[in-house]
Amino acid sequence: FHFEILESIMMLYPLPASTDCDFSLLQYTFLVNSKERKKQRAGSWQNYANTKMKQSYFNSRRNAIIERGHQQREVKRAEIELLEEEQNFDYEIRASCYCNHETLRWLRNDSQRHFCVFHEACPELSNFTTGSDIQQQVFWLSPHFSQYFLPTYLPQFPKEDRQRPNNSQIHCCIIGNPERRDYSLVEHYIRQQQSSRIHIHQIGHGQVEIQDSSVFTQHTGNNVVDFYQYQRLLYDTCDVIWGLMTFSNTPNYFSVGGKQKLSGTLSQAVAYQRPLVLHEELYRLYEKELQNIAWVEVHNDSPQSFVEAVYRMVDRFD
């Protein structure tokens, strides 16, 4: 389940401006079903929601400004509640909508109160919406689509508390499931590496076989499963984030030929203001969202292009 996007839905989901709601006094109710609650990741997110999010979230962002239907609204007070049983809500936003007729029927059943977040392309939606206003009820998480918001609200940590690895190396992080990253680029770089300053970190589920393990660390265990500690590990460790997505190996993140999905790597880079080494097509797609990041080095599908981007990255630290 995508716990990373729940805060962003709370703060960014663009409900239509016509929505009849007092946005200055909000109660957010997160429905986490019993199956999800049993998982360690769910438990750690609930702890985060009930403590840091519930007790200090709006205090740390006092008089928070949220976006609603292209209008800015000021939140003076908000309450957060976690439930297991569904109740009658004023508005319901499904955080992970599947592209199927059940979802589409649910949207059409109540066009004023039901809203959806889709994670990938849904061709059926265009066929289903003829003669309806259902388009106002759906949003995506990437600029592949005209109606989207980038989920960038993640746990925040004071800059002065960052516990960076204590050495002079450049710590480059690859985030997420290794099956969704093109590790042939890393292998190509390691075979040619000329800089002893780089150390590579893989943070996420799954094992990776790397020939030269002296420059590579894999992070597994509780720090990856625990929602809050996972974000803290990223914040502390990463000087740079390597996207490691190529059109030939991971087409689902690109505009043509795939599911047009968001990579969480981009949300984390924006949330924690970390520079990126990224495929040039993805940079063009997300350029607006990445404009506040210090720098981005781009490459194409070629392994040698990736290596050259890494060399330019090293130069930025000299």
The residue-averaged pLDDT reads 81
Radius of gyration: 21 Å
Proportion of residues in extended strands: 15-25%
Class of secondary structure makeup: alpha/beta
Task: Describe it.
This protein has 318 residues and is an alpha/beta fold. It is built from eleven helices and 13 strands. The strands form four sheets. A six-stranded parallel beta sheet has the order 10-9-8-11-12-13, sandwiched between helices. Strands 5-6-7 form a three-stranded parallel beta sheet, with helices on one face. Helix 10 links the parallel strand 12 and strand 13. The longest helix has 21 residues. The chain starts with 5 loop residues before the first helix and ends with a helix. The mean pLDDT is 81.
Helix and strand arrangement:
Blueprint lengths: L5 H7 L12 E7 L2 H4 L2 H21 L3 E5 L2 E5 L1 E7 L8 E6 L3 H9 L4 E5 L4 H6 L9 E2 L30 E6 L8 H9 L5 E6 L12 E4 L2 H4 L1 H11 L2 E3 L21 H8 L4 E4 H7 L9 E4 L3 H15 L1
Parallel strand pairs: 1-4, 5-6, 6-7, 8-9, 8-11, 9-10, 11-12, 12-13
Antiparallel strand pairs: 2-3
Helix pairs in contact: 6-11
Please name the defining characteristics of this protein.
13 strands, 318 residues, alpha/beta, 20% strand
The gist of it:
With 318 residues, this protein is α/β, with parallel strands linked by helices. The protein is 32% helix and 20% strand.
